[in-house]
Amino acid sequence: QDGRHWARIEGAHHTGALLGVGEDHPQGWEKRCAAAPKVVMHADGDLRMYYHSFDEMSQRHAVGVARSRDGIRWERVGKALEGGGPGSFDEGGVRQGHVVRDRAAGRYMMAYEGLDGNGGVSIGLAVSEDGLRGWRRCSESPALCSSEDDDEWDVAGVGAPCLVQMDGPYDWRLYYMGVGKDGEAAIGMAYSEGQGLPRFNRCDALLM
Fold it and tell me: What SUPFAM superfamilies does the database record attribute to this sequence (predicted)?
Protein backbone atom coordinates (compact mmCIF):
# COMPACT_ATOMS: atom_id res chain seq x y z
CA GLN A 1 0.00 0.00 0.00
CA ASP A 2 2.90 2.39 0.61
CA GLY A 3 5.73 0.97 -1.51
CA ARG A 4 7.80 0.23 1.59
CA HIS A 5 6.10 -2.75 3.19
CA TRP A 6 5.54 -5.82 1.03
CA ALA A 7 3.57 -9.04 1.41
CA ARG A 8 3.92 -12.17 -0.71
CA ILE A 9 0.92 -13.25 -2.80
CA GLU A 10 0.47 -16.97 -3.32
CA GLY A 11 0.04 -18.00 -6.94
CA ALA A 12 -1.85 -20.87 -8.51
CA HIS A 13 1.27 -23.00 -9.05
CA HIS A 14 1.59 -25.87 -6.55
CA THR A 15 4.67 -24.18 -5.09
CA GLY A 16 2.82 -20.91 -4.54
CA ALA A 17 4.71 -19.16 -7.34
CA LEU A 18 2.78 -17.02 -9.83
CA LEU A 19 4.61 -18.66 -12.71
CA GLY A 20 6.45 -21.86 -11.91
CA VAL A 21 8.59 -24.12 -14.03
CA GLY A 22 6.77 -25.66 -16.96
CA GLU A 23 6.85 -29.33 -16.08
CA ASP A 24 3.12 -29.64 -16.76
CA HIS A 25 3.09 -27.41 -19.82
CA PRO A 26 2.83 -29.13 -23.22
CA GLN A 27 5.64 -27.05 -24.71
CA GLY A 28 7.96 -28.40 -22.02
CA TRP A 29 10.85 -26.03 -22.66
CA GLU A 30 10.73 -24.40 -19.20
CA LYS A 31 11.45 -27.40 -17.00
CA ARG A 32 14.57 -25.91 -15.45
CA CYS A 33 13.53 -22.38 -14.50
CA ALA A 34 11.39 -19.32 -15.14
CA ALA A 35 13.60 -16.33 -14.35
CA ALA A 36 14.21 -12.58 -14.68
CA PRO A 37 10.56 -11.41 -15.02
CA LYS A 38 9.76 -8.05 -16.61
CA VAL A 39 6.09 -6.97 -16.79
CA VAL A 40 4.59 -4.52 -19.29
CA MET A 41 1.02 -3.20 -19.16
CA HIS A 42 -0.29 -3.32 -22.73
CA ALA A 43 -3.79 -2.10 -21.81
CA ASP A 44 -6.21 -2.24 -18.91
CA GLY A 45 -6.63 -5.92 -18.12
CA ASP A 46 -3.79 -7.01 -20.42
CA LEU A 47 -0.40 -7.47 -18.77
CA ARG A 48 2.52 -9.24 -20.41
CA MET A 49 5.36 -10.88 -18.53
CA TYR A 50 8.67 -11.53 -20.29
CA TYR A 51 11.05 -14.00 -18.70
CA HIS A 52 13.74 -16.46 -19.73
CA SER A 53 14.27 -20.15 -19.32
CA PHE A 54 16.69 -22.81 -20.53
CA ASP A 55 15.47 -25.16 -23.24
CA GLU A 56 17.04 -28.52 -22.51
CA MET A 57 16.22 -29.78 -26.01
CA SER A 58 18.16 -27.05 -27.81
CA GLN A 59 20.54 -26.43 -24.88
CA ARG A 60 19.98 -22.68 -25.22
CA HIS A 61 18.27 -19.93 -23.26
CA ALA A 62 15.16 -18.35 -24.76
CA VAL A 63 12.80 -15.53 -23.78
CA GLY A 64 9.18 -16.47 -23.12
CA VAL A 65 6.01 -14.44 -22.63
CA ALA A 66 2.90 -14.92 -20.50
CA ARG A 67 -0.33 -12.89 -20.22
CA SER A 68 -2.56 -11.92 -17.32
CA ARG A 69 -5.71 -9.89 -16.71
CA ASP A 70 -4.98 -9.13 -13.07
CA GLY A 71 -1.22 -9.62 -12.68
CA ILE A 72 -1.74 -12.66 -10.45
CA ARG A 73 -3.07 -15.43 -12.68
CA TRP A 74 -0.78 -15.94 -15.69
CA GLU A 75 -1.14 -17.97 -18.86
CA ARG A 76 1.91 -18.86 -20.93
CA VAL A 77 1.93 -17.78 -24.58
CA GLY A 78 5.21 -19.45 -25.57
CA LYS A 79 8.64 -18.41 -26.73
CA ALA A 80 9.03 -14.81 -27.82
CA LEU A 81 12.65 -14.94 -28.97
CA GLU A 82 15.23 -17.70 -29.43
CA GLY A 83 18.93 -17.71 -30.23
CA GLY A 84 20.16 -16.91 -33.73
CA GLY A 85 21.77 -19.07 -36.37
CA PRO A 86 25.33 -20.44 -36.45
CA GLY A 87 27.94 -17.71 -36.24
CA SER A 88 25.54 -15.07 -34.94
CA PHE A 89 26.25 -13.00 -31.84
CA ASP A 90 23.38 -14.76 -30.03
CA GLU A 91 23.69 -18.30 -31.38
CA GLY A 92 24.14 -19.58 -27.82
CA GLY A 93 20.75 -18.28 -26.71
CA VAL A 94 18.99 -15.15 -25.45
CA ARG A 95 18.04 -14.15 -21.91
CA GLN A 96 17.31 -11.17 -19.63
CA GLY A 97 14.82 -9.65 -22.08
CA HIS A 98 13.66 -6.15 -21.17
CA VAL A 99 10.65 -4.92 -23.16
CA VAL A 100 9.40 -1.35 -23.61
CA ARG A 101 6.54 -0.02 -25.72
CA ASP A 102 7.88 2.45 -28.29
CA ARG A 103 5.64 5.51 -28.00
CA ALA A 104 6.72 6.92 -31.36
CA ALA A 105 6.22 3.79 -33.47
CA GLY A 106 3.53 2.06 -31.39
CA ARG A 107 5.48 -1.20 -31.36
CA TYR A 108 7.56 -3.03 -28.79
CA MET A 109 11.32 -3.00 -28.34
CA MET A 110 13.28 -5.69 -26.50
CA ALA A 111 16.84 -5.35 -25.26
CA TYR A 112 18.33 -8.70 -24.33
CA GLU A 113 21.51 -10.59 -23.55
CA GLY A 114 22.83 -12.60 -26.48
CA LEU A 115 25.30 -15.41 -25.90
CA ASP A 116 27.73 -16.27 -28.66
CA GLY A 117 29.22 -19.67 -29.41
CA ASN A 118 32.06 -19.13 -26.93
CA GLY A 119 29.85 -17.95 -24.07
CA GLY A 120 30.56 -14.25 -24.62
CA VAL A 121 27.69 -11.90 -23.83
CA SER A 122 26.54 -8.79 -25.69
CA ILE A 123 23.27 -6.85 -25.88
CA GLY A 124 20.91 -7.20 -28.82
CA LEU A 125 17.70 -5.47 -29.86
CA ALA A 126 14.51 -6.99 -31.25
CA VAL A 127 11.17 -5.51 -32.29
CA SER A 128 7.57 -6.75 -32.43
CA GLU A 129 4.38 -5.07 -33.61
CA ASP A 130 2.16 -6.52 -30.87
CA GLY A 131 4.69 -7.58 -28.23
CA LEU A 132 3.57 -11.20 -28.35
CA ARG A 133 4.69 -12.76 -31.62
CA GLY A 134 6.73 -11.92 -34.65
CA TRP A 135 9.79 -10.74 -32.74
CA ARG A 136 12.65 -10.00 -35.13
CA ARG A 137 16.17 -8.76 -34.55
CA CYS A 138 16.84 -5.13 -35.39
CA SER A 139 20.29 -6.05 -36.71
CA GLU A 140 22.55 -9.02 -37.24
CA SER A 141 25.05 -7.21 -35.01
CA PRO A 142 24.69 -6.49 -31.29
CA ALA A 143 23.48 -3.08 -30.17
CA LEU A 144 26.21 -2.97 -27.53
CA CYS A 145 29.19 -5.24 -26.94
CA SER A 146 32.16 -5.31 -24.62
CA SER A 147 34.67 -2.51 -24.89
CA GLU A 148 37.67 -3.17 -27.13
CA ASP A 149 39.96 -1.22 -24.79
CA ASP A 150 41.61 -3.50 -22.21
CA ASP A 151 41.60 -0.71 -19.66
CA GLU A 152 37.85 -0.05 -19.82
CA TRP A 153 35.51 -1.04 -17.00
CA ASP A 154 33.27 -3.18 -19.26
CA VAL A 155 35.91 -5.02 -21.30
CA ALA A 156 34.93 -8.52 -20.06
CA GLY A 157 31.21 -8.37 -20.82
CA VAL A 158 27.98 -6.41 -20.90
CA GLY A 159 24.49 -7.55 -19.93
CA ALA A 160 21.36 -7.10 -17.77
CA PRO A 161 19.95 -4.41 -20.11
CA CYS A 162 17.29 -1.91 -19.06
CA LEU A 163 15.87 0.11 -21.96
CA VAL A 164 14.27 3.51 -21.27
CA GLN A 165 12.58 5.82 -23.78
CA MET A 166 13.15 9.46 -22.87
CA ASP A 167 10.90 12.47 -23.56
CA GLY A 168 11.98 12.70 -27.17
CA PRO A 169 10.32 9.95 -29.23
CA TYR A 170 13.66 8.85 -30.72
CA ASP A 171 15.82 9.34 -27.62
CA TRP A 172 16.68 6.16 -25.73
CA ARG A 173 18.89 5.22 -22.82
CA LEU A 174 20.27 1.75 -22.29
CA TYR A 175 21.36 1.02 -18.72
CA TYR A 176 23.43 -2.11 -18.39
CA MET A 177 25.86 -4.10 -16.26
CA GLY A 178 29.47 -4.17 -17.38
CA VAL A 179 32.20 -6.48 -16.13
CA GLY A 180 35.88 -5.56 -16.03
CA LYS A 181 38.88 -7.83 -16.53
CA ASP A 182 39.22 -8.13 -12.74
CA GLY A 183 35.66 -9.49 -12.53
CA GLU A 184 34.18 -6.40 -10.90
CA ALA A 185 30.71 -5.42 -12.11
CA ALA A 186 29.46 -1.86 -12.50
CA ILE A 187 26.46 -0.10 -14.03
CA GLY A 188 26.79 1.96 -17.18
CA MET A 189 24.65 3.77 -19.70
CA ALA A 190 24.60 4.13 -23.46
CA TYR A 191 22.44 6.65 -25.32
CA SER A 192 20.79 6.86 -28.69
CA GLU A 193 19.52 9.86 -30.61
CA GLY A 194 17.94 10.33 -34.01
CA GLN A 195 15.20 8.58 -35.95
CA GLY A 196 15.14 4.94 -36.89
CA LEU A 197 16.13 1.95 -34.81
CA PRO A 198 18.40 2.89 -31.91
CA ARG A 199 22.16 2.87 -32.23
CA PHE A 200 23.91 3.33 -28.92
CA ASN A 201 26.96 5.26 -27.80
CA ARG A 202 28.39 4.31 -24.40
CA CYS A 203 29.12 6.69 -21.55
CA ASP A 204 31.43 6.21 -18.60
CA ALA A 205 30.29 3.96 -15.77
CA LEU A 206 27.54 5.48 -13.62
CA LEU A 207 27.88 3.31 -10.53
CA MET A 208 31.02 1.36 -9.60
Answer: Arabinanase/levansucrase/invertase
